[in-house]
Amino acid sequence: MNEQLEHIYDTVKKRNAGEDEFHQAVREVLESLAKVLQKHPELGRNKLVERLCEPERQIMFRVPWQDDRGEVHVNRGFRVEFNSALGPYKGGLRFRPSVNLGIIKFLGFEQVFKNALTGLLIGGGKGGADFEPKGRSHDEIMRFCQSFMTELYRHVGEYTDVPAGDIGVGEREIGFMFGQYKRITNRYESGVLTGKGACFGGSLVRPEATGFGVAFFTQEMLKARGESLDGKRTVVSGSGNVALHAIEKLQALGAKVVACSDSKGYVLDEQGLDLELLKQIKLVERGRVERYASKNKGVKYVEGGNIWKLPCAVAIPAATQNELTDEDARELLNNGCEAVVEGANMPTTAKGVRTLLDAKIAYGPGKAANAGGVVVSAFEMQQNAAREAWSFEQVQTRLAQTMVRIHSEVRQTAEEFGAAGNYAVGANIAGFLRVARAMMALGLV
To answer: Which residues contact 183 (CB under 8 A, 6 or more apart)?
Structure first.
């Protein structure tokens, strides 16, 4: 970074003390911008970069709710509306005990650039609560979601802020929140939330979108190197919505996916993962991957194991932030890994990213590779606005076309700024240019 950018980063650290994930996300972008500001000095004026690093609005609120035994709990809710230069704030809600303001800010900052890369008119934001849905009953989750939306409703709207799902928030939770929003406002404002069920305004392919998009992006990266997914031994961390649908599409495109994981351990199936059984265990039974091994002879389950120690050609970190360390990156490279494509948000540590980039393997940053979810969320907003329902094939085709376009733009931008093959730089610069130009046009706001 040059002196100007170093000063901006130091200021961000001081003003946001203790928010390490946010610092990491900001530095990763700022490190890409020196050549941009040299070529376009007007983008460095009027504190534009500083404004981009400061959320437009940060909202925190208490969420009181009662469990099935009558005990009252108080959680903390968040919504960070980061940047609306390109459109209404757009980004998911995460329910997880580890959620805090710093994590929500890092996610919202990443979302700004991810949404810009889609080329669709959506800004960036993120939200959630430090609530653990695992182990809670259906009724407890409903009561929590209703209490959460009782405060959040006053901050969202189809032209203001459009949340979606994330970790711990799926179609069920979105349904509960939409029902409460409708009840409070007396409006059937379909576009206020995305990730809805198909029976009440949701888009087909939305559950699959992030995972499918990761697979399409992986295919394009390999194609650019004259390779394909055919027969590639692939490992996917996680076993939630993103991981399962990434596995599904990767298999359809010819990859051999042999392992996935959850917070307790991983399974290794040398014959290739049985997707239908995995979906039954994770989506229907809401069980652990250990159960997959118990139903398959010859499948290995490693409790507490590190999935990145497994040899593979393609690695897809699709669980959570900073799960893939520098040591893991070196292990993957030593075992012949050719591509690391991020299905989660910032799942690779800063040192890990540098190691992968230095090795010049195919590295797909999350803000580009996992943009498929928000792409179809924007498609859902379009369908809601037009009172239309597109077919599965129509949505999937448009998703694939968008991921191909994102790949092409990121690749070409990296080449333009002297970083050919560096998708991290390309994604940061392409996203920044789109947001920065919109901010300049809107004036000092």
So the answer is: none
The tens digit of pLDDT for each residue in 247-276 reads 999 999 999 999 999 999 999 999 999 999
pLDDT tens by residue, 376-404: 999 999 999 999 999 999 999 999 999 99
User: For residue 258, which phi and psi values (nearest 5 degrees)?
Assistant: -110, -10
Q: Are 173 and 95 in contact (CB under 8 A)?
A: yes
Question: CB of 361 within 8 A of CB of 333?
Answer: yes
Q: Are 276 and 160 contained in the same domain?
A: no
Q: Provide the annotated active-site residues.
A: 126
Residue range of the domain that includes 85: 55-188
Cα–Cα distance, 332 to 293 (Å, whole number) = 24
User: Do 216 and 114 fall within a single domain?
Assistant: no
Tokens 């398959």: give the residue: 296
Domain boundary among 369, 394, 425: 369
Q: Are strands 233-236 and 256-262 parallel, antiparallel or unpaired?
A: parallel
pTM value is 0.94
Per residue in 62-103, pLDDT (tens digit) is 999 999 999 999 999 999 999 999 999 999 999 999 999 999
Burial tier of 139 (Cβ tally within 10 Å: 0-12, 13-18, 19+) = exposed
Query: Does 130 lie in the same domain as 222?
Result: no
